[in-house]
Amino acid sequence: MESNVPTIDHDMKDLFYDIFKKEGSRNDNPFLHTHEHGGVKNYKCDICGRAYSQKRGLNQHMDMHAGIKNHECDICGRAFTLKIDFKRHMHMHTGTKNHKCDFCGKAFSRKSELKPHMDIHAGIKNHKCELCGKEFSRKGYLNIHMNLHAGIKNHKCDICGKEFGRKYVLERHIERHLGVKSHKCDICGDEFVLKSVLERHMHMHAGTKNYKCDICGKVFSRKSHLERHVLDLHAGIKNHECYICGKQFVRNVHLKLHIDMHVGIKNHKCDICGKELRRKSTLKNHMQMHAGVKNYKCHICDKEFNYLSHIGIHYSHLCLKQ
User: Fold this and answer.
1) Rounded distance between C-alpha atoms, residue 267 and residue 265, angstroms
2) For the domain that residue 239 is a member of, what is the CATH number?
3) Structural domain tally of the chain?
4) Does residue 177 lie in a domain region?
5) CB atoms within 10 A of CB 145
6) Which of 259, 305, 306, 294 is nearest to 278 (CA)?
7) Domain encompassing residue 232
8) CA atoms of 156 and 191, how far apart (whole Å)
9) pLDDT (tens digit, 9 = 90+) per residue, 90-146?
10) Could you report how far apart the first and last alpha carbons of the chain are, in Å?
């Protein structure tokens, strides 16, 4: 094949050599290096059509099509076709992160990773979806988004077989299978599998009640609580019946708790005194007793109590004395 490398006079050769010759560079020939910058790509892949300026680049690309991965990580066993990808991977293990964001302090192992991160701070979104117009700061994010339009789901759950378009969604899904509770409330310590459930839980602490009953006007912090309220009090539909005593319940979960009472199941144990209780909510109230927390106060004498039932007994005694 006839070479397309441009002819350069002797003085220019010396100049190019001084500029481009780098110790350990893969482009030891400065004239091939300038040829590469010239955009001349004579080596084309017969499979996908991608072209390269050097035959070596095409050979490495063909290894990718053939699934050849000669660069294997001794730490985790992951293998790579290209040596440069292998080196980038090793930075992850060594923890070398020399490129730091001046805004938030986050560090990266590669300069190429820092630049798109800085674009996020600047609000720069150069990658736009031609179908819906949504814009992204990284091309990779756009590619993932396009997979959603195409219905491509490359991430499959090994437990139930459900498929997902995004890897992180699959990871959250698997956590639900495993019962992993990664989201913890800083106020009461309750843990949740999903971040969205934690956010709804925080509304309860903040006293935010956006869900109002159209029948009686009572407000709730969660939609599920409102629905439960309507079913329990206003609808009065009880489709769940106890097979032991015949008592009926609106919700199946209440029936299960009721049956536990019949059979004597107590799955919630106090770590302090060892007392076993049937309900998690009862255990929470019990733990507050150990902590000295008294949430119920008599409006007559200001005496405080751990349990609502105790203040009810207290009121009964006051009535008897009168």
Assistant:
1) 6
2) 3.30.160.60
3) 1
4) no
5) 18
6) 259
7) 211-296
8) 26
9) 766 766 777 888 888 888 777 777 887 887 788 788 888 888 888 887 787 788 788
10) 113
